[in-house]
Amino acid sequence: MNASLPRRAGLAAALLTAALGLGACAPAGAPTDAAPQTPSPGTSSAPGEETLDGELTIFAAASLSGAFDELAAAFEQAHPGVDVRPISYDGSSVLATQIIEGAAVDVFASADEKNMAKITDAGLATTTVPFATNVLQIAVPAGNPGDVQGLVDLADPTLTVVTCAAEVPCGNAAHTLLDAAGVTVTPASEEQNVTAVLAKVRSGEADAGLVYRTDVAAAASEVDGIDIDGADQATNVYPLTVLDGAANSPAATAFVDFVLSPDGRAVLADFGFGAP
């Protein structure tokens, strides 16, 4: 059973706020009789630094919900002019389809490279960057009433097992691990995102489900996590991109830079994500 990972709530926000405060200080010895400089439109009081404003629309894989909510809050605190709209979380395949069908999005964070490739192949994004990794665990209700010990136990027909659908990154990873172990599972349901799988385990509707280790950690005492031998054989690499047609490209680019910064990576690490 894995203990829940510590949260560094507000860490990035505090660090960024401190950084902004330092940036606002005048250098020692600066002349005091100089006429105040009025920033021109589109720039901040720091020379060469663009003022960010407007709305920012982000689509992100369901497994990123906790981390990206914290990152978005920190980003808004550092850039008060930017309004990060409520982030759309779902399976990466669902989100990719919505973007291809015309959803107006500035930033897309996928839980795998396969679904991000759909976006680049459609000519909707040029540059993508990996920013995190994740692996699967077996999630069971607290106390493990089904006495699940490993993947092989999931083949027991008396157990109710749920997985993600095959086209969803967590489902693809689950199939990879089950095939490698030679285990055949007939799931009671195949969900469109990892959040739905976890919800069924948490509520006791399922005896076990295959989810990311970050989801088990986020659920804390509500579920137990069982490590999977060879889980790194199906490590998911999470890529991030600014859509070529982003309505707020400056803010989108700044958000991606923040996610990749030491502060952003610290938040991701606290939620259990590995480095790419």
From TrEMBL:
Region (Disordered): 30-50
UniProt signal peptide: 1-30
Alphabetically ordered keywords of this record: Metal-binding, Signal
A UniProt-annotated Pfam family: SBP_bac_11
Residues forming coiled coils: none
NCBIfam families given in the database record: modA
Family from the record: Belongs to the bacterial solute-binding protein ModA family.
Name of the featured protein: Molybdate ABC transporter substrate-binding protein
Source species: Microbacterium resistens
Gene name in the database record: modA
